[in-house]
């Protein structure tokens, strides 16, 4: 099986003030996800958070360990969340098979030995987006669908940020050590994914953008509130957001995105908010 893995080291906020566009994109943009028949993994030094993808088309893909983990199995000391954004697929966890429809999620706890991803229709393959974080306790594997999620309706047409938030792998829906995941779907006519902008000084966050037409893109805003930078992001690309960075974005059309977090606590609303008039 083909595994493509890379490492992103932690970058300080003072360093980023001097970065060119190319440097910002190199350190924070992940633009090579969702490759067919390849397990893509990116190991970051922000909370030891990992992101990746698995798109099984001609063969099933096994979540094998990588050298960076120094572990016999990938999940010996980690937990994993996966959300399917493609066709119907399966995730087999230590011999037990779970079927995931589009936008359904699965949480897999630490000490799991085997995880295998597959598609039920090779002409419409599953596309699994993956997040993983270190774990100190084994919680049970659990599938979470949209009907199981905690659903929030936020924003308005007047502020162009009318959106539905599905809290899938979060405290109150399932038990996790530190990983949280969910997805946000913007309604037609809305483009702002989060406003006012915010940051989490106690955890990192990664945004994965999808359901974005090829003719459109999203300007993802990051950096300190008074030292902002932006990245133009296309469909099925991700942005790594350090704890010191804000995150917000506006697209040239509506879109969806998956957010994943890990850090000191499990309080979803633990964030520092900055009004639009405070940003520079």
Automatic annotation (TrEMBL):
Query: According to the UniProt entry, what is the EC number of this protein?
Result: 5.3.1.17
Which top-level enzyme class is recorded in the Swiss-Prot or TrEMBL entry? Answer: isomerase
**Cofactor notes:** Binds 1 zinc ion per subunit.
> Carries keyword Metal-binding?
yes
Q: Which reaction does it catalyse?
A: 5-dehydro-4-deoxy-D-glucuronate = 3-deoxy-D-glycero-2,5-hexodiulosonate
**SUPFAM superfamilies reported in the protein's UniProt record:** RmlC-like cupins
MF terms from GO for this chain are: 4-deoxy-L-threo-5-hexosulose-uronate ketol-isomerase activity; zinc ion binding
Q: Which residues hold Zn(2+)? A: 198, 200, 205, 247
* HAMAP family for the chain: KduI (MF_00687)
What does the similarity note say? Belongs to the KduI family.
Q: Which PANTHER family match?
A: 4-DEOXY-L-THREO-5-HEXOSULOSE-URONATE KETOL-ISOMERASE (PTHR38461)
Q: What's the protein name?
A: 4-deoxy-L-threo-5-hexosulose-uronate ketol-isomerase
State the organism of origin. Answer: Catenovulum maritimum
